[in-house]
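Before relying on records like the one below, remember that each one covers exactly one chain. Contacts with other chains, cofactors or solvent are not represented anywhere in the record.
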Amino acid sequence: MNLKGGVGKTTTTVAIAEMLSGVFQRKVLVIDLDPQTNATLMLIGEEKWEELNDNSYTLAQLFLDAIDPEHQTFNLYKTLQHQVSNIKDLTSLDLLPSSLDLIDVQDRLATIPAGRFYAASPINILRRGIRPIIDEYDYVLIDCPPNLGIVTLNGLRISHCYIIPTIPDILSTYGIPQITKTVSEFSETIAEPIEPLGIVISKYQAGMTLHDRVIKDLRRYSKDAPVFETQIPHKQQIAETVEFDNPHKFSTLRQKWGYAGQFEQYLNLTKEIRIAVSQSVGSKRYGSRSCPRTFNS
């Protein structure tokens, strides 16, 4: 997660999800909570998303039901999309899609009353809504909007840990201390640990003095979140992966993510994250939360 947009958050989420599914043969769920719907579009394309959105088969409907509990229309199983991705034969990656309607829903969520027929707390809406399926997955990745509003807190509520993708520049890294502080306070409030796995360097330009200096400073001074060793380079092919114009556009992960080292970088990052998640989740008891390795980005 990051308070600044355009830092490679969604691309990192989708790449890690596809690596976990395709390389490590794990069953993975991506939950798209960002109203920009970029993760959704990357995984199922615009045409399929429009069909789902027109029929209210997105997570926006889950939150709308909490606002108006007398008209419950959210259908978890019709909203859940199986075997998403435009990589051929990648079959263990599922998606709960987002909607542009979440932009309007966010402000209304703060006014939800408590009571028998309402959400006991607006931060538990997602947790309650996906409870029937969460245990089916080895990993759950949540793509959150670049803010710390109610929708993001719903994602954090079910997360064991989180990563912070950032471009190594001043503007992109400025809000990192606020993120770690706010998440730590939220973790204390719900009495559940939410660990900062680390900072992911994205869109790195080798030889750029500013980038090298910021990375050095992050490694030296970042006390709350370590910096992953793997750095994702700024490459045109990575930018082009957002286009979903064919369900079987790519034959392999390497073809999609790049032959000039990009695939290896995402694979190495995924290996680092798997180790960090295992150490974080495996060493702690997580009380009321489900057992899949759930992390927020």
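The first strand starts at residue 28 and ends at 32.
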